[in-house]
Amino acid sequence: MQERDIRVEVVEINSGSDVVTERAISSKYDMTMAFVGNPSVGKSAFFSRLTGIGVVIANYPGTTVELTHGSINAGSKKVDVVDLPGIYSLGASTEDEKVSKRYLLREYPDVIINVVDATRLERNLYLTLQLLELDIPMVVALNQMDSAKEMGIEIDVEKLSDYLGVPVIPTVATKGLGLDDVVLSALDEEISTEKRRRVHYDNHILRAIERLDADFPEIGYGIKVRALERDEEFVKLSCRPHDADLLLATSGSITEDIEKAHEMQISDTIARDLYGEAGYIVDRVRTQFEHKITFKEKIDSLLTSEYVGITGLIIALLLTFFVVFTLGGFLEEGIVSLFETYLIFPVEEMLADSSPIFRNVFIYSLLGIEAGFAIAIPYIAVFYIILSLFEDSGYLTRASFLLDNWTHKVGLHGRAIIPLVLGLGCNVPAIMSTRALNTMRERRIASVLIALTPCSARTVIILGLVGTFVGYWAAISIYVLELVIIFGTGWVLGKGLSGEKTGLIMEMAPLRRPDPRATLQKTWLRVREFVYVAFPLLVAGSALLGLLDSLGVLDMFQNAVEPVSVGLFGLPAFAATALIFGILRKEMALQILAVLAGTANFVQVLTPLQMYSFAVITTIYIPCVATIAILKHELGWKDTAVISMFTICLALLAGFLINIAGMML
Length: 665
Description:
Layout: E1 5-7, H1 20-26, E2 31-37, H2 43-51, E3 56-59, E4 66-74, E5 77-83, H3 95-106, E6 111-117, H4 121-132, E7 138-143, H5 145-150, E8 153-155, H6 157-164, E9 168-170, H7 179-187, H8 203-215, H9 221-228, H10 232-238, H11 241-262, H12 266-285, E10 286-288, H13 295-303, H14 306-350, H15 356-393, H16 395-402, H17 404-408, H18 417-423, H19 427-432, H20 440-452, H21 456-469, H22 472-496, H23 516-551, H24 553-569, H25 573-581, H26 586-597, H27 608-620, H28 625-635, H29 637-664
Parallel strand pairs: 2-5, 2-6, 6-7, 7-9
Antiparallel strand pairs: 1-4, 3-4, 4-5, 8-10
């Protein structure tokens, strides 16, 4: 294969409901290659190795689910590479599954790269067998072969390829092994779709498909299976409207007869047969040898043990905040010094004789840029690097397992830990990920707790203000306070909310060494959202503040709120203005505070108690606009309004009590 020319493509995807926008992307390329696989199979490492850091993230039209686009030059072809969300099946139980199914059926990529985890082959083949029924050219990337070898698992790759009827390439994505072979195989225009394996379904289902073959000879095998399963969306996306209606009507009565004969839902029968087929294949291609317990397995057993595991988790969290605090604080101090020495002070002197309005707007805008670079980026970037390492190493699933008993006390199970931990990065994707929870009751409880979870923007405030100017343990105490509030709120909701309770069933992904390239990619994709979205808001907001200040409007507002701000919370009036801007984005509260104070060296304008109170109020009260929007989308306006009012009242009460305690001491 020729050397890949990896390019950064700026692709614009409309978030409306028109699917033409997604197709317009593919039209720029000679072919489209879609990565499909279960969560945690190494798909991200594979994708980042192949496409590099320069990729584009966008919502699939009409949804909030993200797709990752990259581009490569492979030989003479320009290829659009699409990373679909990790899914377990082509069903429609989660939004991720719906989006992956819609993409494959609407956009119809030229080839599917099905990334399969060699250590969990039977579970992964459930999806593979469904993908084979789509009749789209496909290559299976049998990933994590190194981990399989360590676990004493040997897989006959050639025999697996014969059984599936598609090329199977062994890979180790984190090391880049086998990736070129996968792409070369995917570029092969002679990939056959005729010899691929068909699932040996129950005789009733096979006879039903034969009946449908007679009436609908031109409709594909897989479409008929989905029609029997009553997957209307799948059928309507795959057929012309008239044919889809006829097929669904005909298959409906057949399905009823099969369900009566089996005394169970046909979807359960099909799932049973898919798992049976996967097990049959695995029994014939996999050999399990006795192997010496590896160092990695010993570490894994310690990480999942009750006492050592919990202790390790606490230490990991403390170390995380210490690293973010230390490194972020060091970067903040250096950036502030550079900005004020070489930019802010010289510009103030240069504009001393200019128009007051122009001077204010310009200086406030510069202060906004300083606040973004000095306060937000250092803490956010460092935190996201660590979070990506936890995700890619498999440690998050172990945290879920360890905390299952604790989460049951608040009406959830251990799987809810993953959305809660994601909430430490950003509340928006964390609330979206609650779709993986089984009941609406669990989603409501988890969403409330996520809204109270200190995200990376709140971490910026806690560590950038309290950690830097008051002390590390003072900052940690805010996290402890938040934990008490979260646990107390969850306990009340767990006891008070009615609804179905479920247990924890979860696959434990093997421990693995994170791919540095994938870690950097994840970090950049998360940080650039701040750079592209928050920075313009911050600069525009700062310029607006400068204009309002020069016109005297800011003084009027701050004089009006001063009795409440100073009297109840012991905060200067300009802090109230900063709190309002925090509704747009949480980190903007601290950045606007720096703009209004005229410096990011807060010790010059605030007492330690005021900084502590400001941080507590900001981390508790109403989530940012984006979080409010996603809460409305997931739970509706009623629940969103209740959550927002609850957090506002709780934040004001906390600020008032801190002020009272400060006056008494």
